[in-house]
Amino acid sequence: MGFTALSLKGRALRLLAQREHSRTELQAKLARHVQEGDDLPALLDELQARDFINAERVAESVVHRRAERFGTQRVLQELRRKGLDEDLVRSTAAQLTGTELQRARAVWRQRFGDQPADTPQERARQMRFLATRGFAADVVRRVVRGSDEWE
Fold first, then answer.
1. Is 84 in contact with 113 (CB distance < 8 Å)?
2. CA dihedral (10, 28, 133, 151) positive or negative
3. Do 112 and 126 touch, CB atoms closer than 8 A?
4. Which of 12, 31, 63, 136 is the one with CA 20 to 30 A from 124?
5. Confidence class of residue 117 from pLDDT cuts 50, 70 and 90?
6. Whole-model pTM?
């Protein structure tokens, strides 16, 4: 009733079953499990050819999980960290930029309610909060200034 060690392919499929992984992520996670005779690049090529590894799906997954709570810059940083192609990152940025103001407003409302900051210190605190979430500076200013400037 003993357990046998998973093959490299088994480990890769288990990781891919949990969530979408980029090729770079899988390579990093599987590298420590490579044994003599294993060909990690060939395995990754096979998984990519069978569409188990798909950069567009990875980008979609990150946007779906993160965009609601984070700004465009923070999401793009995660995409780059996953090793995705810069063209895909740029196209995702274009998609996210159009909704950034609405997303920043939602995050701000959830954290601070509907009342604009009444002191410069509170305004600075709210701006820092949104900036650390990865929202653009002009969007942060528009959100924190108050509802009179909202479209």
1. no
2. negative
3. yes
4. 63
5. confident
6. 0.83
